[in-house]
């Protein structure tokens, strides 16, 4: 007799489905067995099956599509989108994004003035509380399939005594050419983090349950290593990868 | 009279705590109000409070520490560890990791032979199923606080007709010097992805609930852009960031 499985039934169901998704029994993009079939197979009620499915949804291994059922997602598939990170400089000195993605603003971007919070002041090497021009944009590409939240921060101190003291400069990437005009040669460092989205981020980026964010911070620096500006990107962690040349 | 909140109570509790964590009412690293206090405040039973806390744990905003209670985590804090990604070449031609972290193997690394799965064959530009030398290591640094899963893949075809055909080469980063000895000049591309961990990864990396993985794939290429080897890193998405010079 095989040893008795002492796990709760909903977890046994989650384990059974997880193993099936990982070994290809339930291929990515295909529907899982129905709740009814699973309830019968494990001798449980449908709420118990649903509890097992909830656990898998939270781990990003299945996706529930309204009115169509529950579909397997493979953690091994290569993402459809590769997002090359970098900034190019053309022979005429213009800076452009190396990503080759045509982002468009899904909503009118907002420009505000914020005070530098501690964690950002640190990256910009300015005193916490220093005022910043802040631009927020929700951008889409590829017919809305790709979405990102893009924020640009420009410390007032960087613009002191320049023509942008009165009229703020454009947000990145146009910002780079404005900075170049002020005589800066630009260098870039990116910091990549991840975490689960906050509810408003999950909604704006249309994230399914169990999909974390990629959080990218780009610092623009002078040749001497002085930070000038900061950008924050929040991207869906599903079906997307960032690419960096080392 | 304020409009009646129609959300279920457990969600109202989760929203209340989330807002408090985000606005600093419940500072990062500090304990949240007790289950008892929350039950009283919202007029609910403790299981309902726990349901609200479970939701916040899944989103990585609180951490339950056995026997000590539930603590707030800020999504805004700068991580304690910055992990610079890159490979340096010393004047004598030796390749070394630029991370400056002293990783040690927590367990004896395992060497196996695997067949290239589709998603990796694609990155290595070899036919799916081609045999690979595969090394697996669980590595720790900083007195065990930092943990990573490190896998190195070397296609047999890269070693054909070399002295490593019989005795496999060492895993990365020593591998780089073995490849350099074979006459290759090396270039590196990294792909960064994220997702929720599988149960064995969560255990090996000691991840709390609601903490995603950073998944890094490093491809080592020749000057002509031919992929030679592949490394896979799985890192905790908590309290850690990757840094890239663009």
Automatic annotation (TrEMBL), chains A, B:
Domain HTH gntR-type residue range list: 7-75
GO BP: any one term: negative regulation of DNA-templated transcription
PROSITE patterns in UniProt: HTH_GNTR
TM ranges: none
Annotated keywords: DNA-binding, Transcription, Transcription regulation
InterPro entries assigned to the protein according to its UniProt record, in alphabetical order: Bact_HTH_transcr_reg, Chorismate_lyase_/UTRA_dom_sf, Tscrpt_reg_HTH_GntR, UTRA, WH-like_DNA-bd_sf, WH_DNA-bd_sf
Keyword Transcription regulation: yes
PANTHER family in UniProt: GNTR-FAMILY TRANSCRIPTIONAL REGULATOR, MANNOSYL-D-GLYCERATE TRANSPORT/METABOLISM SYSTEM REPRESSOR MNGR-RELATED
UniProt protein name: GntR-family transcriptional regulator
């Amino acid at each position: 007799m095989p040893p008795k499985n002492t796990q709760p039934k909903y977890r046994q169901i989650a384990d059974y489905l997880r193993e099936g998704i990982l070994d290809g029994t339930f291929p990515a993009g295909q529907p899982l067995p129905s709740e009814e079939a699973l309830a019968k197979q494990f001798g449980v009620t449908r709420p118990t099956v649903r509890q097992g499915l909830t656990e898998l949804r939270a781990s990003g291994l299945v996706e529930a599509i309204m009115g169509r059922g529950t579909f397997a997602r493979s953690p091994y598939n290569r993402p459809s989108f590769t997002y090359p990170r970098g900034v190019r400089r053309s022979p005429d000195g213009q800076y452009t994004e190396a990503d080759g993605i045509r982002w468009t603003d899904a909503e009118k971007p907002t420009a505000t003035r914020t005070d530098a919070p501690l964690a950002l002041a640190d990256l910009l090497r300015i005193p916490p509380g220093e005022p910043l021009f802040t631009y927020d944009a929700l951008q889409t590409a590829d017919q809305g399939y790709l979405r990102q939240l893009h924020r640009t921060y420009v410390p007032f101190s960087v613009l002191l005594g320049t023509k942008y003291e009165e009229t703020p400069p454009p947000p990145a990437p146009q910002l780079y050419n404005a900075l170049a005009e002020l005589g800066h040669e630009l260098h870039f460092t990116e910091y990549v983090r991840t975490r689960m989205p906050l509810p408003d981020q999950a909604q704006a980026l249309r994230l399914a349950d169990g999909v974390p964010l990629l959080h990218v911070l780009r610092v623009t620096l002078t040749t001497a290593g002085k930070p000038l500006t900061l950008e924050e990107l929040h991207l869906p962690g599903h079906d997307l990868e960032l690419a960096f040349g080392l």
